[in-house]
Amino acid sequence: MPGKNQFVYNKWMVVELEKKKDVFLQTAYMNGIPTEQRAFGIVVGSGRKGQTYLYWDKNSLYQLPVSYYTPANDWCNSPGYSENYIRFDRPIPATCLECHSTYAESKEKKDGGTVFNKKSILYGVDCERCHGPGAAHVAFHTQHPEAKTASNIISAKNLSRQQRLDACAQCHSGLRKHTQPAFSFTVGQKLDDFSTPNYDVDTVGNLDVHGNQYGLLTACRCFKMTAQLDCSSCHNVHVSERQNMTAFSQRCMSCHNVNGVAHDSCSYKPPTGIILADNCVDCHMPLLPSKKITLKLANESTVEADMVRTHFVNVYQEATKRFVEKSR
After folding, report:
1. Which neighbouring-strand residues pair with 47?
2. If you ran DSSP here, which 8-state letter would residue 203 be given?
3. 232 pairs with which residues across the strands?
4. pTM above 0.70?
5. Which pLDDT band, with edges at 50, 70 and 90, does 265 fall under?
6. What residues pair up with 304 in beta bridges, in sequence order?
7. Distance in angstroms (rounded) separating the CA atoms of residues 90 and 55
8. Which residues on adjacent β-strands are paired with residue 221?
9. Is-contact 233 222, C-beta < 8 A?
C-alpha cells in the first residue's frame, strides 16, 4: 500500500516493499539509489506475533531485512538484523526450518553454508511434525475404516512425561547445539541424543523470555512439585485458545483448587469485583520484555523490546498491579 510500504533506517537508507506482477520484493535504497533487490521466497511465522521472510539464492536461503510485527501492524527490522543499516546476508541453516517447517532435505557445504532440495520442503508445521510420517497411517485406515485405534502413528498417550516435553522442547528450548543433522529427531526419542542446550541448566531462571519456554517452565516450582505437569497440561495444540485466560486459569485451578476452594494458595486479596481465578496468567506468567529480540518499527524512531509471555511461573508484584488497574 502506498505510504505504508517503506522501512526507514535513516534519511540515507530505506527498504521499500512492493509487488511487481506476481512477485513481492524488498529493495534497498542508499541515498535514493537502489542497491540490492530480492524476491520473497518463503514466509516464516503464523502471523500471530509476526512474519519474517526468506529469499532464495540458487539453492540457499537468506533472510530479508524487513519483517512484519503484528501487535503494531507495522514493519520492523528482521530478528538478528540491526535497525541501523541494511543487510541481506544472514544465511538460513536447516536448523531454522526444523522448527518452521515439517521437513526439508539439506546438505552442508564445506564453507559452512547450506543448500536445500526445494522439491523436498514440506511447508508449515503440520501433523507429521509431531506425529511422524503419515503415509502408513493413512494407508492402514483407508483399508480398515472400521478400526478405531490409531495405527502407524505416534500418539502422545503412549509417551512418557519427558518424551512429551522433548517433543515441545525441540523448538521451545532456545538455540541448541546440534549433534545430529536437522530433522533427525523423531518424537518419542531422547532429544539430548540429537542436540544439547547451549545454556547452563543451573541458571535457567535467568533465561530470556524469548524462545526457551521449556527451560523456564522446568525451573519453576509448579513443575518441580509435580511429576505430571508438562506442556500439554496447559496447552491443547489442536485448539486455538490464544487470549482465553479463563480456559488457561481453569487448568491452573486443577492443581491449586484445594478442598473445593479455588485459588486457596493465593495470599493476594484483590479489590472487590475482580475474580483472580478467571485470570491467573497475567499475574503469574506476565508478558515481559525480551532482551534478545528488540525491534524498531517503521513509523517509530525508538527501539522497543518484543513482549513475550514468560513460562517461569512465579509471583510478579508489578504485573499484579498492572492486572488490577486494567481490570477495574
Report:
1. none
2. G
3. none
4. yes
5. low
6. 295
7. 10
8. none
9. no
